[in-house]
């Protein structure tokens, strides 16, 4: 099968996952299955990465329910500085870390949040996506998923590092990802660090009410759980 055919087949799988009427993690599993079918070497490398991160306890020291959410002041996709204080002044917040515009799991995760945006708004909730990419790439992802909420730029993963969420992908994944992705260009550095795609539900008092932190980037907080947590955060 030609490389272009493989890419098209994968994009068809991503589109099928987007259109599937199922919980978010079932939709994400469609993407993971497509990756394994089309590139078993890459899928096996991801399994090894996740195993390494789990053995190292990656994400275990991130803030948890009952902790105060550390503050941030980050530029959004329009270049405007946004602080946690600004966000919480409008209501409880969904703060979610995404790896990048190139990540199909992140794209679907963001689409899942967009799909429940009306419910989030009815609960007075605010959504903030945080990404370690240059502004034009964050802006492109926001447009691609049809989001109305801000995408904040965490250059060099500074905020993610402060939350113990930033991880090095490792030499093997750097080599494999580098075959098709220009991460240094997207991020403006050559570190090959990415955030664990965590989600925090934060009350207006600044206290974390719930969180989802998993070093396996193929898994995310389901939107039903997100809505339930946001309801408790009011």
UniProtKB/TrEMBL annotation:
Q: Known InterPro entries for this protein? A: Redoxin (IPR013740), Thioredoxin-like_sf (IPR036249), Thioredoxin_domain (IPR013766)
* One Pfam family in the UniProt entry: Redoxin
Superkingdom of this protein's organism:
Bacteria
> Which intervals hold domain Thioredoxin?
63-234
SUPFAM superfamilies reported in the protein's UniProt record: Thioredoxin-like (SSF52833)
What's the protein called, per UniProt? Answer: Peroxiredoxin-like family protein
